[in-house]
Please model this.
Amino acid sequence: MLRKVVLSEAFGRFSDTWSPKIVGDINDQQVKLAKFEGEFVWHHHDDEDELFLLVSGALRIELRDGSVQLSPGEFVVVPRGTEHRPVALPTAEVLLLEPATTLNTGSRPDDERTVGEPQRLDPV
Model:
């Protein structure tokens, strides 16, 4: 069965930040939505690439040797092994596309913002 996801409605269903919500599955990948506020933790993912698509707000992806600024409608893919830190300016709504095994804090599993099992948002 096909299921349409309306991003504005899905983002309206939660308010917590840095806690990705699963809204779809594509093969071994998951489509996740998250609200960001301020700075996240520096981390990397040994085995997973990560796509950040900015839906609203402003977002900077900091790298150890520079940064990438995103405006709504733009995305960046952070390659596996690349240390990075998302920074919302001051808030952002983000669509993530990443392998289902991806831990939001990657190499920092003991961080207080680690989400072991993301919540799945059921269709409305």
Summary: The beta strands are 21-26, 29-39, 50-63, 66-70, 75-78, 84-99, 119-120.
